[in-house]
Structure formats: C-alpha cells, structure tokens
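Let's study a protein:

___
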Amino acid sequence: MSSIKVVFLLLVMTWSWTSMAKNNFSVLFVNPSLEGEPFWGKVQKITEEAAAQLDINIDVIYGEGNRHIQLAELKKYLDYRASPDYVILMLYPGGAEQTLTMLNNYGIKFITLEQTITGLEKEEIGLPKKRFEHWLGEVYFDNYQAGYDLARALHLSVVAGGHKGQVNGLAINGHYGSESDKRNQGAAAYFREHKINLQQTVHASWSKEQAYSKTKRLFKRYPETHLIWSASDLMAMGAQTAVRQLVKDRSKKVAIGGFDWLSDSLSLIDEDILSASVGGHFMMGGWALVSLFDFHHGVPYWLTNSAITFKLSSITKENVNEYLWISTTPDWSKVNYKSLSILDTKIKEYDFSPNQLRQRAETIK
C-alpha cells in the first residue's frame, strides 16, 4: 500500500472516530417530580425521544417534588455514576445555590428549565455564566404573559356565551412561589384592564382535590361567578367538578381554564366543558436537548446568550381540533427534533414555539 493511501486511511479512521465520539455524548435529565406524574412525565418522554433522534445517551433521575430529595439524588448520581457531559434540570427554590455549586465543582455544563428562583436567592446565584461558569443558560417561558393570555381566553369565552354587563371572576393559584405568582399577576393585570371583578384569589397547592373543596366554598359565597382562572389544568378540573355539582341550571356556563395541556383537559375543551388551557411548555426539555446537540457540535449560541425564551399557546374550543392528537397517546417520535436544530444553517436564534405542534397536527396521527 502506498504511503499516500496509508495516510488517507489514517485520516479517515481518525475523522470517523472523532465524529462518532463527538456525536455520542451523554445527558442527565433531572425530572423534578415523581415518576409517572402527568406533566413532567410528558416532559421526560419528549426529552427521551429527542435524545433518541439526536443519538444522545440520556439518563433520568427523579426529584420527587422535594428540593432536598432532588439534591440528594443528584449528588448520589454524580458521586457513584459516570459523569454526564451535560445536565438538564429545574432548580427548586431554597436549593439553587447548593445545586449550582455542586454541578459547577464537577465541571459539568448544564441548562436549567423555567425561571423558578426569585428575590434574594436570585441575586445570590446571579445570571448564567457569571458566578457559575458551567451554567450555560436557561430555557423558560413568560409566566406573566401566559397568565394574561388565559384570563383573556376565559373572558372571550364568557362574552361569546352571550353574557353582557359586569363579569365576575375567581382565581385559584398554585402555591406561594414565583411560577404561580407570575401567572396570577398576569391574570390580575388583564382583569384590571378589562374591569373584571376579581372577587377572590385562593391557593390550592396545585391540588385537584383542594381546588374542588375551595371552589365549593367560594361558589356558595359568590354564586354569580362567570369565570374561574386556575394556575393548572388539574386545579381547573377540580373547580369544574365543584361547579357542576353546585349549578343545576345547565344553561348557566362558567368559563374555567388552566395550564399544561393535559389530555383530559383537551378532551373537556372539545366537549365544551372546560373553556381553555394554556401550555406547550412540556416541549422545553426536548428544546433544551436540541440546543445542547448544537452546542456540542460547535454552534456558539450558548457562548453569547444566557437564555432561550418562548411563548405558550392557548387552546380553546375554536382551535382544539388542531391539537387533539396530543391527547390520545401521541407518537412523539414523529416530531422531527432535528429540524429544530440551527446546526449548519445561517440561523442564529432558536424559534421554539408550541405552535409548531399545531402546524404538524395534520401529519402526526
């Protein structure tokens, strides 16, 4: 064999090995909730499917809805397992600094989902890449705008139902935290702008059962309620059950809606029982993974940016048919995650949006 052929063969072998090594990297996805929980289960499933398409090795651990458990599980994984190339996780209030410090000390690059940290704790951890150099950035949506949009969808439903005059509303918030508070602030802003009488706001800790029991008491106190804004679909369904039991006149419609695009809530919207659901954020883990795929292959986005933001979308009776495919065991493998990559393109910004699912509604079945 000539020396030229030998050199060429060595170059090909070196290129192939390097390419394979670079393609096949590992990510740890930290599911902050319990295994099988509807919303985060969907986030996990989509993230795993994106990993399969992009040839990424992915592991999953669970935070079980508790910051102490999540920190302990993450520490155990990092101490006793092979270190992943990247980590995707949501930070719990009260545990952010410890988590970020541990990941940074291990030298593992990571992305956080949602903006869950506020106030003094936010000031202490700072922005990505500042105090914690391996914190690439955040993937999050505007909870304030989402709360505003749900309030608008419910108001329009009341008006479309023929109601005239003063509109009276109730609000069921999640817990006392940044995520639910931002959503509620957006709703309150819409109600003020449109002179909707917000009779009372309660917290139901994201619980369907609590929302049910509190709505029963509230509706007895405020029987002339026209809409119920809820910070989650589960709580909206709890409120809807209470209203159905209390309101015997089936011609009297109360507009009720929440967040998360849960399968049951979309079916209830289709049946004209619930009025609206705002969501699409269950795609955020897959979107974060696409950005890591690009970063790993040389796209400089995370070198010059600290966030990817996106807007949620409203599903109502008017457009629910375009989204019903996601309510009955959807095949997430038919979503082309590679098409969302900006690798080998001239595009410099990501265009992640739940509306992408709507555009594919006719082809994904």
Summary: DSSP finds 13 helices and twelve strands in the chain. Confidence is low (pLDDT under 50) at residues 6-21, 360-365. The radius of gyration is 23 Å. The first helix runs from residue 3 to 23.
